[in-house]
Structures are given as C-alpha cells and as structure tokens.
Amino acid sequence: MNDRLPWRLFGVVYAHAHPKAPNTSIIRNKSGLPLPTELLGEPASGYLTGPEEQERRQDRIKSVCLSCHGGGWVEGHFKRLNNTIRTTNEMTLTATKILLEAWEKGAAKGIGQGESIFDETIERKWVRQWLFYSNSTRLASAMGGADYGVFANGRWYLSENIAEMMEWLEFKEKDVR
Ligand code: HEC
Questions:
Q1: Beta-carbon contacts of residue 89 (< 8 Å; ≥ 6 apart)
Q2: CATH code of the domain containing 127
Q3: Looking at the 3D structure of the chain, how many domains does it have?
Q4: Model pTM?
Q5: Which of 65, 84, 143, 147 to mutate to test ligand 1, by most ligand atoms within 8 A of the CB atom?
Q6: Ligand 1 proximal residues by C-beta, below 6 Å
C-alpha cells in the first residue's frame, strides 16, 4: 500500500511525506527530537520521500480509482484531500504557536524548561489538535466522509480547541500578573 500513498495523513505532528525507511525510530528533526517534522511544520526532509516520489505515488493511487471512477471525480477527490491536508496542518500550526507562546510567557513549562510537553492542560489541548482532530479530519476527507470531517472530531473541534487554548492562555496570564 505504502508505494501508493504520497502523504502520511496521521501526522506526528503534521501530515508529511512518508518516511523513506520503514524503521521510523531513526528519525530526528533539526531540534534532535524523534519527529519527522519540526514543531513549526518544516519536514525532516532527509528522512522523508521527496516531491518526485510523492507525485509517482499520487499517480499510482489515482490509476487505481480510475479503473472505476471518472477522471473529473478522481481529480476532484484528491484536490479536496490535498486542501484538507493543507488546512489541517495550518490549524495545527496555529495551536503550536499558542503553545510556544505559553511556554515563552511562563504560563506552562515545556522544552525550554526541560519539562514534559504532554502533561499540562494547554499541552493536552495541543495534542488534541493534531492527534485527534487534524488526523480525524484528514481520515474523513480521504474516505470522502464530508460530514464526518466536521462533526466526528473534525473541523468544528479544530476551531473550538484553538479558541479554548487562546482563552486558557489569557486567563493564565491574568493569574501570573
Ligand atoms: C472496483 C471499483 C472501484 C474502485 C477501484 C474505486 N471505487 Fe470508489 N466507489 C465504487 C462504487 C461502486 C461506489 C459507490 C457508488 C454509489 O454508491 O453510487 C464508490 C464510491 C466511492 C465514494 C463515495 C462517493 C459518494 O458520493 O459518496 C468515494 C469517496 C470513493 N468511492 C472513493 C474512491 C477512491 C478514492 C478510490 C481510489 C483510491 C476508489 N473509490 C476506487 C467503486 C470503486
């Protein structure tokens, strides 16, 4: 299956090109973390397949769909999916920037303080953004499930969670002052 998939939809933290090797434990991003992207989304390209290979894979999966579906339908499907990949990555980036601001302002303790990045409220919400909501939205889009992409841990939750993260930070800042 892998040689027909241009994108790894279940991102850690962002959706990205599939790793070159099946052993993903060797992956390190520029910051030394075992992640295939930087916290701000830049892919750890050395470990991932490049744009040419992605295009080859995209064509292979399209040729499978084309044996039953018409050309316009197939093009439209992947255009929508690629748009979902872009917008969900952007929603994850927005959440990440709020988290970085919380660390910077001392409202939460993260990488800079040598603390866990998964144990505080705002960090758990950040994890929700990509592990639950962005991933679910992308799965729904890949499967043509338009309603699921909104209601089943989808876009509704992506935007609600950002509002909650921002408000948490505002309240917490008032606390710190
Ligand atoms: C063996 C034939 C076949 C292949 C290959 C195939 N499909 Fe389908 N697909 C169908 C049939 C049959 C339906 C149901 C059409 C209906 O209910 O009117 C369908 C429906 C769908 C639907 C639901 C459409 C809707 O309006 O709800 C999606 C999404 C879909 N296919 C995606 C794909 C994708 C993506 C691929 C390629 C990875 C693919 N299909 C390959 C036969 C196929």
A1: 11, 14, 15, 41, 134
A2: 1.20.850.10
A3: 1
A4: 0.93
A5: 65
A6: 61, 64-65, 67-69, 77, 144
